[in-house]
Design brief:
The chain contains 2 helices and 8 strands. By secondary structure, it is of the alpha+beta class. This is Endonuclease/exonuclease/phosphatase domain-containing protein.
Length: 133
């Protein structure tokens, strides 16, 4: 028996990126993700306030959560392939969020996290680990 590998089968490509800031750079990010054929990308340090989703070009949509002070912030960028398959979004705080994508076979849970650095106060660190558990 010979097994033939299907090179045309759809593959899901996942990435993570600390963007430093998304302000004024979202279209650049979308172009880079399209060039690398990324389907889902967790982003950290977006520095956007609020909890929304919006189109960023090239068929990509970003679902994000940030603090009112435009610090920290996380998001998940979703390609055209999965943008209509988002079943659930959970925004825990400006350092942790989850997006659930439904496919024909299963429900996929994607997290974007931005862990507190050593200089952060203990309360911020404790809250982060509490949400993560």
């Amino acid at each position: 028996m010979r097994i033939v590998k299907d090179h045309n089968a759809a593959k899901t490509r996942i990435a993570t990126l600390n963007v430093g800031t998304l302000t004024g750079r979202s279209c650049e990010l979308a172009a880079a993700l399209e060039n690398r054929r990324i389907d889902l990308c967790a982003v950290q340090e977006t520095r956007w306030s609020g909890n929304k989703s919006k189109d960023i070009g090239h068929g990509f949509k970003v679902v994000y959560n940030g603090s009112p002070k435009t610090r920290n912030g996380v998001g998940i960028v979703v390609s055209q392939r999965f943008r209509d398959s988002i079943a659930e979004v959970q925004r825990f705080d400006d350092r942790l969020m989850k997006v659930v994508v439904t496919t024909a076979e299963q429900r996929l849970h994607f997290f974007s996290t931005y862990a507190p650095q050593t200089g952060c106060c203990e309360q911020v660190k404790d809250n982060f680990w509490m949400f993560l558990d």
